[in-house]
Amino acid sequence: MSEILLLAVSIYLIDAILSGVYTQRFLKEKYSKGTVLAIWGTVYFLIQIVIFEILDSRLPVGKVAGIILNICILLFMQFLFFKKDIHKQFFVVSSFMAGKETVKYMVSVFSFMFNELRHHILDYFIVEGMIKTLKTLHIWAGIFNFTFIILCALLYVLLLSGFLRLISKKFVRKDCLLQTYENVFLILPCICALCISVTIRMMIVSVEHGMTVIIFDTVPATKFWIPVICALLLSAIVATVILFQKLVRYNEERERRALLEIQVRQMQKEIVEIQDIYTDMRGLRHDMRSHIANISLLVKNAAGSVNGELESYIGKMETTVSKLDFTCQTGHPITDMIIHRKRQEAEKKQIRFQADFTCPPNLLIDIYDIAVILNNALENAIEACHKTKGNKQIKLHSYVKGSLFFIEVENDFSEDLIIDEESGLPVSSKGNEKLHGIGISNIQRCAKKYMGDIDIVISAADGRKKFSLTVMMNGKPAAFI
């Protein structure tokens, strides 16, 4: 009896620790992490002891009632120690309970087989004369019982922690808000596992003709099939989580692709107008400068000298006309216009803007993709710089190495950044939102379209934090087509 009680207490302790650690991976604590884990473990352990060991001896708690009571306890404790997130709380509790109950019956098969082995070994020792007294028998029985408890507890903690760790690892989008139908999709396999665990419980031990019958004795094949069924149940829960995460990523990818297509279509519509405007502006600048030069010459010849006020006025006209010039001549009107517009936007926000950009003339890279990269990268850089105090600047640079085209954008920033493990893109620590949002994903998608990728470097120098984005694209030279 003491052996069963000690094993039960060990399992209660394991459940208390693992449930707290597992919950922390999904929900945000109201208090400090260490404090929540310590109080959670202590309270849940004591509650299990009081309800399922002390009170159960006076007022037996059925299997189904025990599961429901456990779920209610865990939900109430989540309400006390963690911030409200109903859908995720139900998933955490149901998946933990499903794993806990399912693993328990996998361990029960092992414990039955170990007991059989223990009896065979003790019988062998008695027959061989290694055990001759009752005292020696008790010593060996105590050794086997202690070993039994350690092995069962160790197997239980390995299986349950492995299952919970796998769920936590595969549930990548822990920050996303679950919809009701998504929550139902995730919880249903857990409920099925709990229902089957109750059925297994009723099957394992039964009473026939006043005698307790264990199904492992009457149907030996169950020693194989019960662990297999339990493993399949746990696998189904994990597979559901993986499928759900893939659907989430697919929907995000579809939304990003749709936004990228909208950006490209907008640029395609604007490109004709921009090219016309660009051509008109070049003609206008040329004509205006010719007119100013002629006027200046005529006034000088007519007056015989240069009038100071008139010269100043004509100089101001020249300055006005010069504003129509694009300071960065990239070799294509689209990129000229984008850089010109972003430069003006940056200067209005008191951000220094340096650009050394040239479109690759001999590489087969669509100008629309270059435009998407420039537009998103510079927009993100301006936004990050605008939130930074003091002197701030943006540097844009491009160069070609063989068939590779590189675009580099460097900017100051002030926010704390972490890198998302799955995407490798920067994530803001505030609200766990992506700093560069969907824009940087579109940049990466454009780069991968040309067998390239992006590289992000975060550095600090002279008390300033720098965010450097490098985009590489591989465009086969036109001469080799």
Largest sheet: 5 strands, mixed
Overall mean confidence score, pLDDT = 80
Q: Shape from CA axes? A: elongated
* Structure class: alpha+beta
Strand content: 5-15%
The tally of strands reads 9
Radius of gyration: 36 Å
Name a few traits of the molecule:
alpha+beta, two-stranded antiparallel sheet, 9 strands, 66% helix, 12% strand, elongated
Structure description:
The protein contains twelve helices and nine strands. The protein is of the alpha+beta class and 481 residues long. The strands form three sheets. A five-stranded mixed β-sheet has the order 3-4-5-9-8. A two-stranded antiparallel sheet has the order 1-2. Helix 5 packs parallel to helix 8.
